[in-house]
Queue: 3 jobs
Job 1
Amino acid sequence: CCGHYHVRMGATRGLLLLSLSALFCWVTADIHCHSCNKIPVLGCVNRQSCQLRPGHRCLTTNVYLGKMWLYSKLRCGTSEEPCYEEFDKIDHKLGLNYNTTCCEKDYCNSPAPRPTPALALVFLTSLAGLGLWLLH
């Protein structure tokens, strides 16, 4: 009696673990992340999506010069480049600040913050001035 009970419980436990593993793989297999480089005025360049592998997370890295947003990189985390959240990581040589956020839901790494209209105007004015200077 008791031996038969343990075999039945072992098989049930194994079936439960197998079912949970399959469910976990099924749930994580359909998670996608945005993948692009986002720059002021133009937005996301090379917009694609990537499928997230189990155990990884979507990444968004925003790069700033002081408080001015320069660009963002959105992508899937990989074994070579897993996602680690970091805030105000500073590159002293270039004077850039990096903020990286991670998430694990379908398309959760939404495109980075948009520049303010005033910043976009300054950027466009600078480009126009550079263009005029190059024409002379």
Job 2
Amino acid sequence: MSFASSTGSPLAAYGWDEGLENEFTPHRAAGLVPARVIAVDRGLCDVVTEHGPLRAETRPVASSDPLAAPCTGDWAALRPAADRQADREGERAVLAALLPRRTAIVRSTASRDSHGQVLAANVDTVAIAVSLAARLDLGRVERLLALAWESGARPVVVLTKADQVAGTADAEAEVASAAPGVDVVACSAATGDGVDVVAAVLSGTVVLVGPSGAGKSTLGNALLGGDVLATGAVREQDGKGRHTTVRRELLPMPGGVLIDTPGLRGVGLWDAEEGLQQTFAEIEELARECRFGDCAHRTEPGCVVLAAIEDGRLPRRRLDSYRKLLRENAWIASRTDARLRAERQNEWKAISKWQRQMYRERGRDR
């Protein structure tokens, strides 16, 4: 019987399914057990297995590449502590391998050093929290939508704190204009209004993203059905909140799994070309009708995108935002290419240095 169909297995509540069971077959033959990463600390992580939660080392799967490092949501092959006694490395269980990720939400690292950072793995739905009590920032919404689409997960925009405004219809329409093909729903986690509607559009493993003060943890508690996540007040002078969530953590909820994340101050794109195309799908569709295939939508004759702006079908703000995010994505891509070229060059230098040393040693031995 698979874990997905076993009502007594904790892994069924965390998303284990028949496909994962089949994929895990060689690991199980090697004596390893499946586990899902709940949260990650330095060198250690919290995981859940078919026998319940435990603490494990991440050293065997550690990587200098942030993209390859274990993160919340990963499925892993775990070597239980009992099998390690002969290794004289301690009694703690270890992650022996990570299963390939079905989806991954990736942003550029905070240092903008051309590396990507995985925020959450194996996510089915990205719930973008937008506070109705703060100034609406459509550019930030579009940026988060690009990350969500690029991940392979399905984005949903949740307008929070609906109890603090007179009505939500205008805001919903405004956000919908910047989120083609995306469900936009409003709710008040404080009063419970609309939470059932939000829950209905979320499925599978859900990650909550958005800035501090957007009400992610309060919404998370409403979805979890209890005060599980820490919440804090928002400053009146600027509408910003404190980082009450200090790490990414995965929790089972009715009908799925929830990952709460710390507030994102900076959300840099990383290799998000396809995500941008989906976020700005109406511009991409209009551009196919332009007279020139390489139309930049600036002054070219026969530009259908500019014509749509002129007749009001397309807000100019959308085109400006699209251009801005395209430039940013191209810049980080060029940084990544330069870093990879430098790394390859350093590898060749190291090989050449080793070869010269070997030839010198051979010459001395003659």
Job 3
Amino acid sequence: MSLSLTHRTIDAIWRIESAKIIAGLTRMTRDVGLAEDFAQDALLIALDRWPEIGIPDKPGAWLMTTAKRRAIDHMRRNKLRDQKYVEIAQSMDMYTIEDSDLALDGDIGDDLLRLIYMTCHPVLSQDARVALTLRLLCGLTTEEIARSFLVAESTIAQRIVRAKRTLSAEGVPFEVPSAEERQDRLSTVLEVIYLMFNEGYSATAGEHWFRPILCQEAVRLGRMIAEISPMEPEVHGLVALMEIQSSRFKTRVNTKGEPILLMDQNRGKWDQLLTRRGLAALDRSRKIGRQLGPYSLQAAIAACHAQAVTAAETDWVRIAALYEALSRVAPSPIVELNRAVAISMAFGPAFGLQLVDELNAEPALQGYHLLPSVRGDLLVKLGRAEEARMEFERAASMTRNERERSVLLKRAAECEGGER
């Protein structure tokens, strides 16, 4: 295996395993900043050693073992300064490669839930909570988080550093809080799980169109939140959204790993069990009796797609109405862009293009690749091929996902030849 391929493989492994490793180390050290440092140390050691010795059969356990040894060494060096850390270290058995299945699949799952509540503590600002949790649970770089929120990378880096310092200084516990405290943190927890799922569903960067394991972790966390907060409609709404979206996984890429867009997917291969679970969760959200919130509204939109036997049978008028409702409860430029797509499907591309053109001056969408991508699609439908080609090329230059770039360049090439 070449050095570059080995490094790409290590990066993929890290994105899958890092949240579990950091959660386990946080349980051990009670300091999320130290936990990330030790996990990063293990990653650096892997980058140095694995190209020579080969990738272990159980790389996650190898990383956990290495990181834990670093943590225990640190505790021993600071014995006089902090006897508590020594006692914690001495009371825990070392992880080994042989017991890796227990190490990674035992109570680590609960640790992820504790970690998300810890990083969503109200001692942090809303922006800091989200940035830190995406960093630790999703393994996103500061650059990727910055692109997701359309802000400067330095701003995100500062938020994360300050957040870790604050958690340590305030002694925020590593635990699932009481019911009252959970309620105070619920909106941020749901937002982070939602963003975690979205990053898995459409990867910001890299060679893969999506990261299903990240989606699965988000769904699992959502289900756990639903069990401990059964009367919160938005919890069920978020679970419904993720379940329905997950039902499409098998049809989102072809055998070469190339993306298949929603309208071109084989709906007969959508996972009906996940669809039914999602629709049932949406029904639970509605029966609680409150006005539908942003997650429930998005789940209702996903349900419209799930219940259409063919793409042609999609109820785009209802979807446009649901986006209108969503724009009122959770207004954002991205919601408006999605609403423009729905309106174009319901009433014609000219109407959609008019709305998209109004978004061109929106500061938050500058550098957002889906804006020119959507505009290119609408221009194709209007027979303005040369303009569409330029939009697809512009979108391709903005995205950092290799699969998405390939799709956009292919669409640009299909527009060659001028107006239709």
